[in-house]
Sequence to fold (209 residues):
Amino acid sequence: MPFLFSAPHLPPQELEVMTILNSIALSNASLDAATAACWPAGTTHTERDVLVRGVPLSAVASVDGTPLVRVGQARTWHPRHRGTERPLTIVVTRVEHVDHLGLFQRPDVWVDAALGGRQIETVRVIGRPSAARRRRVRLLTEGAPGDIARLDIPADVHEGDLLAIACVGALPLSGVSRRSDRTPRKDAPPVPPVRTADDDLPFTGRCGR
Fold:
Protein backbone atom coordinates (compact mmCIF):
# COMPACT_ATOMS: atom_id res chain seq x y z
CA MET A 1 0.00 0.00 0.00
CA PRO A 2 1.63 3.25 -1.08
CA PHE A 3 1.46 6.27 1.19
CA LEU A 4 -1.70 8.28 0.80
CA PHE A 5 0.32 11.45 0.66
CA SER A 6 0.21 14.85 -0.99
CA ALA A 7 3.08 17.31 -0.75
CA PRO A 8 2.46 20.45 1.32
CA HIS A 9 1.97 23.75 -0.44
CA LEU A 10 5.46 25.05 0.25
CA PRO A 11 7.66 26.90 -2.22
CA PRO A 12 9.72 24.26 -4.10
CA GLN A 13 13.01 25.87 -3.08
CA GLU A 14 12.08 25.95 0.60
CA LEU A 15 10.81 22.36 0.54
CA GLU A 16 13.98 21.18 -1.21
CA VAL A 17 16.25 22.89 1.36
CA MET A 18 14.25 21.45 4.28
CA THR A 19 14.39 17.96 2.77
CA ILE A 20 18.15 18.16 2.20
CA LEU A 21 18.86 19.45 5.70
CA ASN A 22 16.69 16.80 7.28
CA SER A 23 18.24 14.06 5.16
CA ILE A 24 21.73 15.07 6.31
CA ALA A 25 20.67 14.49 9.90
CA LEU A 26 19.34 10.99 9.30
CA SER A 27 22.58 9.28 10.26
CA ASN A 28 22.31 10.88 13.72
CA ALA A 29 18.78 9.65 14.32
CA SER A 30 18.81 6.04 13.19
CA LEU A 31 16.29 3.74 14.83
CA ASP A 32 16.71 0.15 15.92
CA ALA A 33 14.90 -2.38 13.76
CA ALA A 34 12.11 -2.99 16.27
CA THR A 35 11.29 0.71 16.55
CA ALA A 36 11.56 1.31 12.81
CA ALA A 37 9.02 -1.47 12.24
CA CYS A 38 6.43 0.58 14.12
CA TRP A 39 6.40 3.16 11.33
CA PRO A 40 5.15 2.64 7.75
CA ALA A 41 7.54 1.93 4.93
CA GLY A 42 8.80 5.18 3.40
CA THR A 43 9.16 6.80 6.83
CA THR A 44 12.52 8.18 7.94
CA HIS A 45 13.54 9.97 11.11
CA THR A 46 15.76 12.84 12.11
CA GLU A 47 16.57 14.26 15.51
CA ARG A 48 13.62 16.62 15.26
CA ASP A 49 11.15 15.17 12.75
CA VAL A 50 9.44 12.27 11.02
CA LEU A 51 9.71 12.38 7.24
CA VAL A 52 7.39 10.71 4.74
CA ARG A 53 9.18 10.23 1.44
CA GLY A 54 11.59 12.97 2.44
CA VAL A 55 8.97 15.52 3.49
CA PRO A 56 8.96 16.52 7.20
CA LEU A 57 5.55 16.08 8.78
CA SER A 58 5.95 19.21 10.90
CA ALA A 59 6.15 21.21 7.65
CA VAL A 60 2.99 19.56 6.35
CA ALA A 61 1.21 20.31 9.64
CA SER A 62 2.25 23.97 9.51
CA VAL A 63 0.50 24.32 6.15
CA ASP A 64 -2.40 21.85 6.27
CA GLY A 65 -3.13 22.01 9.98
CA THR A 66 -3.84 19.18 12.39
CA PRO A 67 -4.87 16.53 12.87
CA LEU A 68 -3.51 14.91 9.73
CA VAL A 69 -2.99 11.28 8.80
CA ARG A 70 -0.60 9.40 6.55
CA VAL A 71 -1.33 5.74 5.79
CA GLY A 72 1.28 3.28 4.57
CA GLN A 73 2.23 -0.36 4.52
CA ALA A 74 4.21 -1.96 7.34
CA ARG A 75 7.90 -2.48 6.68
CA THR A 76 7.90 -6.09 7.85
CA TRP A 77 5.41 -8.89 7.75
CA HIS A 78 4.53 -11.49 10.35
CA PRO A 79 3.95 -14.99 8.92
CA ARG A 80 0.30 -14.91 9.95
CA HIS A 81 -0.15 -11.71 7.91
CA ARG A 82 1.39 -13.21 4.78
CA GLY A 83 -0.67 -12.44 1.74
CA THR A 84 -2.68 -9.75 3.49
CA GLU A 85 -2.16 -6.04 3.83
CA ARG A 86 -1.04 -4.71 7.19
CA PRO A 87 -1.36 -0.94 7.07
CA LEU A 88 -0.10 1.52 9.66
CA THR A 89 -1.21 5.11 10.13
CA ILE A 90 0.75 8.11 11.33
CA VAL A 91 -1.49 10.60 13.09
CA VAL A 92 -0.05 14.08 13.64
CA THR A 93 -1.81 15.96 16.43
CA ARG A 94 -1.15 19.24 18.21
CA VAL A 95 -1.01 19.62 21.99
CA GLU A 96 -3.62 22.19 22.97
CA HIS A 97 -3.11 22.19 26.72
CA VAL A 98 -1.39 20.28 29.50
CA ASP A 99 -3.15 19.96 32.85
CA HIS A 100 -0.70 19.38 35.68
CA LEU A 101 -2.94 17.75 38.27
CA GLY A 102 -0.55 17.52 41.21
CA LEU A 103 2.82 16.34 42.39
CA PHE A 104 1.88 12.66 42.48
CA GLN A 105 -0.55 12.61 39.57
CA ARG A 106 0.25 12.18 35.92
CA PRO A 107 -0.68 15.15 33.74
CA ASP A 108 -3.56 15.20 31.28
CA VAL A 109 -2.54 16.18 27.76
CA TRP A 110 -5.26 17.64 25.53
CA VAL A 111 -4.76 17.17 21.78
CA ASP A 112 -6.79 17.90 18.67
CA ALA A 113 -7.08 14.26 17.53
CA ALA A 114 -9.37 11.59 18.99
CA LEU A 115 -7.25 8.50 19.67
CA GLY A 116 -9.20 6.60 22.29
CA GLY A 117 -9.50 2.90 21.45
CA ARG A 118 -6.71 3.00 18.86
CA GLN A 119 -3.87 0.49 18.96
CA ILE A 120 -0.90 2.83 19.34
CA GLU A 121 2.54 1.51 18.51
CA THR A 122 4.75 4.46 19.40
CA VAL A 123 4.83 8.25 19.59
CA ARG A 124 7.40 11.01 19.31
CA VAL A 125 7.58 14.79 19.38
CA ILE A 126 8.25 16.40 16.01
CA GLY A 127 9.28 19.91 15.06
CA ARG A 128 11.95 20.05 17.76
CA PRO A 129 14.44 17.67 19.37
CA SER A 130 13.50 16.06 22.67
CA ALA A 131 15.64 13.80 24.82
CA ALA A 132 13.40 14.00 27.88
CA ARG A 133 12.46 10.87 29.79
CA ARG A 134 9.03 9.46 29.10
CA ARG A 135 6.07 9.39 31.42
CA ARG A 136 2.58 7.92 31.22
CA VAL A 137 -0.15 10.47 30.51
CA ARG A 138 -3.78 10.54 29.53
CA LEU A 139 -4.44 11.92 26.06
CA LEU A 140 -7.83 13.64 25.87
CA THR A 141 -9.69 15.40 23.08
CA GLU A 142 -11.99 18.36 23.46
CA GLY A 143 -15.41 17.63 21.99
CA ALA A 144 -14.95 13.86 22.25
CA PRO A 145 -16.24 12.95 25.73
CA GLY A 146 -14.80 9.73 27.05
CA ASP A 147 -12.14 9.59 24.35
CA ILE A 148 -9.06 8.79 26.41
CA ALA A 149 -5.79 7.17 25.35
CA ARG A 150 -3.01 6.28 27.76
CA LEU A 151 0.55 6.30 26.48
CA ASP A 152 4.10 7.34 27.27
CA ILE A 153 5.31 10.65 25.87
CA PRO A 154 8.36 12.84 26.60
CA ALA A 155 7.93 14.61 29.92
CA ASP A 156 8.78 18.02 28.43
CA VAL A 157 5.73 18.10 26.13
CA HIS A 158 3.98 21.45 26.28
CA GLU A 159 1.22 23.42 24.58
CA GLY A 160 1.83 23.83 20.86
CA ASP A 161 3.96 20.71 20.47
CA LEU A 162 3.30 18.33 17.61
CA LEU A 163 3.08 14.59 18.25
CA ALA A 164 3.50 11.96 15.54
CA ILE A 165 1.70 8.82 16.66
CA ALA A 166 2.02 5.48 14.85
CA CYS A 167 -1.18 3.42 15.00
CA VAL A 168 -2.17 -0.01 13.69
CA GLY A 169 -4.63 -0.02 10.80
CA ALA A 170 -5.66 2.40 8.09
CA LEU A 171 -7.34 5.30 9.88
CA PRO A 172 -9.25 7.92 7.90
CA LEU A 173 -8.98 11.54 8.94
CA SER A 174 -12.65 11.49 9.90
CA GLY A 175 -11.86 8.70 12.33
CA VAL A 176 -9.47 10.80 14.40
CA SER A 177 -10.96 14.27 14.03
CA ARG A 178 -12.69 15.65 17.10
CA ARG A 179 -16.42 15.12 17.10
CA SER A 180 -17.26 18.68 18.12
CA ASP A 181 -15.43 21.84 19.03
CA ARG A 182 -18.45 23.75 20.27
CA THR A 183 -17.03 24.20 23.79
CA PRO A 184 -13.62 25.77 24.40
CA ARG A 185 -11.32 23.54 26.42
CA LYS A 186 -11.20 25.96 29.36
CA ASP A 187 -14.98 25.70 29.80
CA ALA A 188 -15.19 21.94 29.43
CA PRO A 189 -16.32 19.89 32.43
CA PRO A 190 -13.35 18.32 34.18
CA VAL A 191 -12.57 14.72 33.38
CA PRO A 192 -12.07 12.88 36.67
CA PRO A 193 -8.79 11.01 37.09
CA VAL A 194 -9.20 7.33 36.34
CA ARG A 195 -6.52 4.93 37.49
CA THR A 196 -6.16 1.53 35.93
CA ALA A 197 -3.86 -1.34 36.75
CA ASP A 198 -1.56 -0.59 33.81
CA ASP A 199 -1.02 2.99 35.02
CA ASP A 200 1.36 1.69 37.67
CA LEU A 201 3.27 -0.66 35.40
CA PRO A 202 6.39 0.37 33.45
CA PHE A 203 5.42 1.07 29.86
CA THR A 204 7.31 -0.96 27.26
CA GLY A 205 4.88 -0.92 24.36
CA ARG A 206 5.29 -2.99 21.28
CA CYS A 207 8.16 -1.03 19.87
CA GLY A 208 10.26 0.15 22.78
CA ARG A 209 10.31 3.84 21.89
User: Anything to note?
Assistant: Helices lie at 12-24, 33-36, 57-64, 173-176. The first helix runs from residue 12 to 24. The chain has four helices and ten strands.
